[in-house]
């Protein structure tokens, strides 16, 4: 039986614009778009995950009458906006998560979804570079906006 605060690995069953539906054993759950990343990296979860992906999530809420479960990816990690991790000009070794054919945060151009650091995902313009999932690349934060929870990253 799941409880609020539990951390589990769940399989993505479908992605929608507003969130990612997942299943852990027989428990269905939803990770809404603000709970995917500390950084507002995309306007559609279709760019974040696809059916079959495995996500580690933290259970945020269980509605007892309906059985609906709300989960979070970002809450597994400290808030980088309050711990000083997001600094304009800072460089990171980021892990490539997936190629995105048309990334809304990159003017609908091809991009890579990268994990800048645990719990924080960003879009990196592809610029005709071919990368593989899991590959680590050097990136730099060019701009950050705390009010919008957004960052702009580029190749370091």
Question: What do you see in this structure?
Answer:
The structure is a single chain. The protein is an all-beta fold. The protein has no helices and 10 strands. The chain has strands at 7-15, 19-24, 27-32, 54-62, 69-72, 91-103, 109-117, 120-125, 136-145, 150-155. A 5-stranded antiparallel sheet has the order 3-2-1-4-5, with no helix packed on it. A 5-stranded antiparallel sheet has the order 8-7-6-9-10, with no helix packed on it.
State mean pLDDT (0 to 100 scale): 96
Distance between the termini: 45 Å
Q: Helical element count?
A: 0
Order of strands, widest sheet = 3-2-1-4-5
Uncertain stretches of 5 or more adjacent residues: none
**What is the number of E strands?**
10
Report the sheet-strand fraction.
over 45%
- Radius of gyration, rounded? 16 Å
Helix content: under 10%
Question: What brief labels describe this structure?
Answer:
about 160 residues, five-stranded antiparallel beta sheet, about 50% strand, mainly beta
């Amino acid at each position: 039986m799941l409880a609020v605060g539990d951390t589990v690995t769940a399989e993505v069953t479908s992605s929608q614009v507003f969130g990612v539906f997942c299943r852990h054993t027989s428990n269905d759950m939803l990770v809404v778009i603000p709970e995917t990343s500390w950084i507002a990296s995309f306007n559609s979860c279709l760019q974040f995950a696809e059916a079959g992906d495995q996500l580690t999530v933290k259970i945020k809420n269980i509605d007892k009458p309906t059985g609906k479960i709300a989960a979070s990816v970002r809450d597994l990690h400290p808030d980088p906006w309050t711990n000083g991790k997001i600094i304009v000009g800072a460089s990171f070794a980021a892990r490539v998560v997936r190629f995105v054919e048309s990334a809304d945060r990159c003017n609908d151009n091809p991009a890579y979804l990268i994990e800048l650091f645990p719990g924080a995902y960003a879009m990196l313009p592809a610029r005709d570079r071919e990368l593989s999932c899991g590959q680590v690349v050097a990136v730099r934060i060019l701009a950050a906006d705390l009010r919008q929870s957004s960052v702009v990253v580029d190749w370091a």
